[in-house]
Amino acid sequence: MPGGARANPSHAQGGNLKRTVIVTGGTKGLGREIALAFGRAGYDVLALYAADENAARELVELMASEKISGHALRHDVCSADPALWQRPEIQTADSLTLVNNACAAFSPMPLHQLGWADFEKNFLVAVKGAWSCSQPLIRLMLKKGYGTIVNVLTSAIEGAPPKGFAAYLTAKYALQGFTLALAAEYAARGVRVFSVSPGYMETPLTQQWDARLSEAIRANAGRITLPTEAAARILQLVEDSAVLGQGENHPV
Questions:
Q1: CATH fold for the domain made of 2-251
Q2: Residue 205 clears pLDDT 80, i.e. is over it
Q3: Closest by CA position to 90, among listed 26, 23, 41
């Protein structure tokens, strides 16, 4: 195949092919829709979450009602937990996909009102979280000869950034750099790595913001994205063997 690309087992249908997707921040908002989209496509789903037991229970009940093979697992993406990566859904999968979607809760505010702790919180979840989940899976992907890592960015990194998002955006820019670094090292070895950039979305995170602020952001957003549409596009990208996964970013 051109450019050293390998066949994509993620798009194969039927047979005994075992496909697993791990979604961080996977029980609410965009992560929940990603988990459902992949589950409906026949993947084993491991939806990781930090604390919200109610959201996790609701997702598990919905997956059960739709006969989706999956679990919601409480896991701090900033900490090491070797047992998670030993689960049979991961170890025995023919195809592994990791979607680094988790992001720290925040409310937009001027930079001069932020402390370093605000930046650190965003970095820990977005960047350290992506690193701590990617590192053990990369080893498995290399052994299997194939894998996909998707990092969720934001359309706010396109062009001039909006005001009030300094800590969040700095972490997302760092995650973009991490995406490029991963691709530089592993894309030629069968591990596809790319990012996606959704527009403004109505999610449990943004619903906690002041209604006037949310309305102003919506009015000035470059694009508005429905979580279901973004999830469907991410699934499409993962299953498309023409997607090179060499660190490129895909607006969704």
A1: Rossmann fold (3.40.50)
A2: no
A3: 23
Least confident of 13-22, 123-132, 144-153, 166-175: 13-22
- The whole-number pLDDT of residue 199 equals 84
Provide the residue ranges of all domains of the chain, joining segments of one domain with +.
2-251
